[in-house]
């Protein structure tokens, strides 16, 4: 379980990081909103602890962007201000829970556990296109029952496609979602990754699931009903 802690106050960051590591969570840290978004473009996190007041981009903006990118990891907002308005704002932008500073570490932990438990049950629903199955809970991908080992980028690409069956995913959408917001595809890295993914998923099977949309991007087929 990897948790991203976004907080600009070094002491609080250290306090949360140490506490979580003692509970055997893997912790990554970002000290401002932009750094957080960059890390979220590169890594997968199981949960995000997000301070409201941050330099560069505040917690509300970051949360909005997280949900716009369809990152579904639960978000716990941290704030020094305990006003109803702030809570509503955060929750409206896609935060799952709220902790008011100063907080007892035990309370934060309990909320993390509750969200991760909920996540497990929600994420049980597998994605399927024809005989291709992706299980978000275990990150396992199979085609006709045969496991397909994928790199983390390939997995995220496939997850992105499978959540949008029949929809065209442009290179810009893919770049922003998988590689980060300010991504510039200077070395055809998207085409190369999709090509590798296709080799593993479709190979030379008669039913090719991932299609090229010329000059635009890619899509995974939508099954005829
Ligand atoms: Ca702060």
3D structure, described in words:
This protein is α/β, with parallel strands linked by helices and 225 residues long. The chain has two domains: 2-120, Rossmann fold; 127-220, Orthogonal Bundle (Arc Repressor Mutant, subunit A), CATH 1.10.10.10. It is 41% helix and 21% strand. It has eight helices and twelve strands. Strands 2-1-3-4-5 form a five-stranded parallel beta sheet, with helices on both faces. A four-stranded antiparallel beta sheet has the order 6-7-8-9, covered by helices on one side. Strand 11 (210-213) and strand 12 form a beta hairpin. Helix 6 crosses helix 8 (189-201). The chain is elongated, with a radius of gyration of 19 Å. The mean pLDDT is 88. Calcium ion is lined by residues 7-9, 51, 53-54.
Q: Could you name the key traits of this structure?
A:
single chain, 225 residues, alpha/beta, Rossmann fold, Arc Repressor Mutant, subunit A, five-stranded parallel β-sheet, four-stranded antiparallel β-sheet, 8 helices, binds calcium ion
SSE layout and pairings?
Blueprint: E1 2-6, H1 10-22, E2 26-30, H2 33-42, E3 47-51, H3 59-68, E4 75-79, H4 84-92, E5 97-100, H5 105-122, E6 127-129, E7 132-135, E8 140-143, E9 146-147, H6 152-162, E10 169-170, H7 171-179, H8 189-201, E11 210-213, E12 217-220
Parallel strand pairs: 1-2, 1-3, 3-4, 4-5
Antiparallel strand pairs: 6-7, 7-8, 8-9, 10-12, 11-12
Helix pairs in contact: 2-3, 6-8
The chain binds calcium ion.
Calcium ion (CA) binds at residues 7-9, 51, 53-54.
């Amino acid at each position: 379980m990897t948790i991203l802690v976004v907080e600009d106050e070094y002491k609080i960051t250290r306090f949360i990081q140490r506490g979580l590591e003692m509970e055997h969570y893997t912790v990554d840290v970002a000290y401002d909103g932009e750094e957080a978004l960059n890390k979220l473009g590169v890594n997968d996190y199981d949960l995000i602890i997000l301070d409201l007041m941050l330099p560069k981009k505040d917690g509300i903006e970051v949360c909005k962007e997280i949900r716009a990118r369809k990152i579904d990891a639960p978000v716990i907002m941290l704030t020094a201000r305990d006003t109803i308005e702030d809570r509503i704002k955060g929750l409206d932008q896609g935060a799952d829970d709220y902790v008011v500073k100063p907080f007892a570490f035990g309370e934060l932990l309990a909320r993390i556990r509750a969200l991760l438990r909920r996540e497990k049950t929600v994420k049980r629903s597998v994605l399927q296109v024809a005989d291709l199955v992706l299980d978000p809970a275990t990150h396992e991908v199979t085609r006709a029952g045969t496991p397909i080992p994928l790199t983390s980028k390939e997995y995220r690409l496939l997850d992105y496609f499978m959540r949008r069956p029949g929809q065209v995913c442009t290179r810009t959408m893919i770049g922003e979602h998988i590689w980060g917001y300010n991504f510039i595809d200077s070395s055809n890295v998207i085409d190369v990754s999709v090509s590798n993914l296709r080799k593993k998923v479709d190979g030379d099977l008669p039913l090719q699931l991932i299609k090229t949309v010329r000059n635009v991007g890619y899509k995974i087929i939508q099954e005829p009903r």
